[in-house]
Each structure stands twice: as structure tokens, then as C-alpha cells.
User: Which sequence fits this backbone?
């Protein structure tokens, strides 16, 4: 089994921004300890990331106090949240189970290009507006798939 790939720095910063946004919606602010718990990482890692996000103008941070997102940070976090929602809706519309959806979204959400996300969003909107089309898709997918025979010389 291959080793798990290392998380790219932007993936980690996006996860931090997404969780900060959630905490701010719940409490109005975020603290290092809350964020570390949500992300399952050490407080020191969170502190380092928060300092980097503050340097980039995405977080208002004062040592030993809570922190909040700047306007720019809020906009970035909102875009991340929307991407997450579009992917979740798309996979649910495909008929995947919620636990599978959650795992898949976490795995690929950081790797989509805006054009791909836009296409998925439009497809979700189409299926919501045209439920008969969505039902046809689901009916098609639930049909047994033919088994293909291997031909000589092919593996």
C-alpha cells in the first residue's frame, strides 16, 4: 500500500480557514485550542498556521487571545465552504452514501479547478431544476452493468 501523500501547505491553510469560519459562525471567534481540537492537530501547529495566515492578511490574531477572519479571510473561507457544499451535493445526487461523500469531498476538494467546480455546480442546478432528468440518471446507474470478457493478449 502506498504511503499517504503529504498534505500541501495550501490544503492545510484552507482546512484551517474553513474550520475558523465554522467556529466564528458558532461562537463569533476562534481559539487555538478549539481549532486544534477540530483539526486533530497540536496547538503549536495551529499557532504557526494562524501566524502565517495573519501575515497574509487573512486572520486578525493577537497572541493569547482569540482570533477572527479579516474580510479577505472571510471571503476565502466562504469560497472554500461553497466548494465543499457543491461537491457534497454532487456526490449525494450521484447516490453515494453520506459517509462516502464526506470522505471523498475531503480527499478531492483542494484539487479542483474553478471550471470543473462550475460544471459540477451547473449539473447540480440542472438536476434540481429537472428532477426527471436526475431520476433517469439514477435509474440508468442502477442497471446491472454488462461483464466484459477479456480478449486474448490483453491483461
Assistant:
Amino acid at each position: 500500500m502506498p504511503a499517504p501523500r503529504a498534505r500541501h501547505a495550501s490544503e492545510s491553510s484552507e482546512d484551517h480557514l474553513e474550520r475558523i469560519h465554522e467556529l466564528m459562525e458558532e461562537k463569533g471567534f476562534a481559539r487555538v485550542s478549539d481549532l486544534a481540537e477540530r483539526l486533530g492537530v497540536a496547538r503549536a501547529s495551529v499557532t504557526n498556521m494562524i501566524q502565517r495566515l495573519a501575515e497574509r492578511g487573512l486572520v486578525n490574531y493577537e497572541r493569547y487571545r482569540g482570533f477572527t477572519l479579516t474580510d479577505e479571510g472571510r471571503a476565502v473561507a466562504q469560497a472554500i465552504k461553497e466548494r465543499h457544499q457543491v461537491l457534497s451535493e454532487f456526490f449525494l445526487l450521484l447516490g453515494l452514501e453520506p459517509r462516502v461523500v464526506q470522505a471523498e469531498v475531503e480527499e478531492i476538494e483542494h484539487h479542483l479547478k474553478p471550471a470543473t467546480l462550475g460544471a459540477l455546480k451547473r449539473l447540480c442546478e440542472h438536476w434540481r431544476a429537472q428532477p426527471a432528468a436526475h431520476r433517469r440518471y439514477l435509474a440508468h446507474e442502477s442497471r446491472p452493468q454488462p461483464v466484459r470478457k477479456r480478449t486474448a493478449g490483453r491483461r
